[in-house]
Design a protein that fits this description.
By secondary structure, this protein is of the alpha/beta class. The chain is built from eleven helices and eight strands. The chain has an eight-stranded mixed β-sheet with strand order 7-5-6-4-1-2-3-8, with helices on both faces. Strand 1, helix 1 and strand 2 form a beta-alpha-beta unit. Helix 9 packs antiparallel against helix 10. The chain is elongated, with a radius of gyration of 25 Å. The protein starts with 5 loop residues before the first strand and ends in a 12-residue tail after the last helix. The protein binds uridine-5'-diphosphate and magnesium ion. Uridine-5'-diphosphate (UDP) binds next to strand 1 and helix 3.
Length: 355
């Protein structure tokens, strides 16, 4: 297959109900694109039949390629793995659950042809999302806008098209706590927006439970703002100043011979309040420290268990981080567990254990 003009990167985590429809709708769309297209399906450690179905898609249509990670590394890392493996001139990132309609890809491609290097899709309407999800999303994007040290568009997820130039810039950032949409704002380049209606999930449950959503939000804040640290400092200064003033008032009252009996309640409230504030601040600082620890360990962002459909001349671009290059060939390589399973396309891997 010749070098593709477009790559579509799709992270997949337990999406067996959606994959057949996803493949069908995608094939219709990529047939209409103005150049050869590959689809990189990234199996982020699925435990259902997703991987099987993805391999079936590859057998049926060689434009579908499958990258299987060794376990669940999370949405943001799965996207990165797919982008590392993609080699199109324009790379599109979209979700597997058909919330991002594949047909929008045509509009993204049209803007790219106008010369834009990052074309992101903006959610105009959200269908079938709970009020809770919409409220928390509005709150989060509002706070992000106010606190982040870079300008970030509101209501933009990871659905976007990226030109090779911008993608290479993005891939040179190997930070471990990834907030991909923020990183794309950070790199700059010529950016354009395409509005779309976010559909409801095609089938199955969200793969973003509360825990993962909080984690993503925390990465979004900590990765792009030091405002919480400044806030901690400011709160500390205010507290210290008010306690000095309070002390001086107490001394003045004593010297003036006025009766001054501090109340038990005010004492208790002050102590508990201050210990609470201190714990919050320590926790906040801890968020930054934990991420520093994560970064210095410098583990790979993901590990590949198996790759299917990637031929020798379509190896993924060289990882930007020298630590992730394989020593034996000195060039392009994923951080793989088993080199053999990656190079042999015929090798059918055992299906992962189900739970
Ligand atoms: N996903 C993934 N790894 C994860 C969680 C999610 O690859 O650990 C994928 C998932 O299969 C989907 C996309 O990321 O293609 C977005 O997830 P989801 O639709 O569950 O998120 P939501 O739309 O509910 O925010
Ligand atoms: Mg979804």
């Amino acid at each position: 297959m010749q070098t593709p003009r477009y790559s579509v990167v799709i992270p997949v985590y337990n999406e067996e109900e959606t994959i057949p429809d996803l493949v069908k709708r995608l094939r219709e769309v990529i047939d209409r694109l103005d150049g050869p297209t590959e689809v990189v399906l990234v199996d982020d450690g699925s435990r259902d039949r997703s991987h099987e179905l993805m391999l079936a898609a590859n057998r049926e249509d060689a434009r579908f390629k499958v990258l299987q990670l060794s376990r669940n590394f999370g949405h943001q890392n799965a996207i990165t793995a797919g982008m590392d493996a993609a080699h199109g001139q324009a790379v599109i990132i979209m979700d597997a659950d058909l919330q991002d309609p594949p047909e929008v890809i045509l509009q993204l491609a049209a803007r790219w042809q106008e010369g834009y290097e990052v074309v992101y899709a903006v959610r105009e309407h959200r269908e079938g999302e709970t009020r809770f999800k919409r409220t928390t999303a509005t709150l989060f994007y509002g706070m992000q806008r106010r606190l982040a040290e870079i300008e970030q568009p509101v209501d933009v997820g990871d659905f976007r098209l990226v030109d090779r130039k911008a993608l290479d810039a993005f891939l040179s950032m190997r930070e471990r706590n990834r907030y991909v949409r923020g990183m794309f704002s950070w790199i700059g380049f010529r950016q354009a927006a395409v509005p779309y209606t976010r559909a409801s999930r095609h089938a199955g449950q969200t793969k973003y439970p509360m825990r993962k959503m909080i984690r993503l939000a925390a990465d979004g804040f900590v990765g792009f703002s030091t405002a919480p640290l400044r806030f901690a400092l400011a709160a500390g200064v205010v507290m210290a100043l008010s306690s000095v003033i309070y002390g001086m008032v107490a001394i003045a009252l004593k010297l003036a011979g006025l009766p001054y009996v501090p109340g038990y309640a005010s004492l208790l409230v002050t102590i508990t309040f201050l210990s609470g504030v201190q714990l919050i601040v320590v926790g906040m600082v801890g968020q930054y420290v934990a991420r520093i620890y994560d970064e210095v360990r410098a583990r790979p962002l993901y590990l590949v268990r198996d790759a299917r459909g990637f031929t020798a001349d379509s190896q993924p671009p060289q990882p930007a981080d020298p630590a992730e290059r394989s020593p034996e060939n000195g060039h392009a390589a994923w951080p793989v567990i088993s080199q053999r399973s990656v190079s042999s396309d015929e090798h059918v891997p055992p299906t992962p254990p189900r739970q």
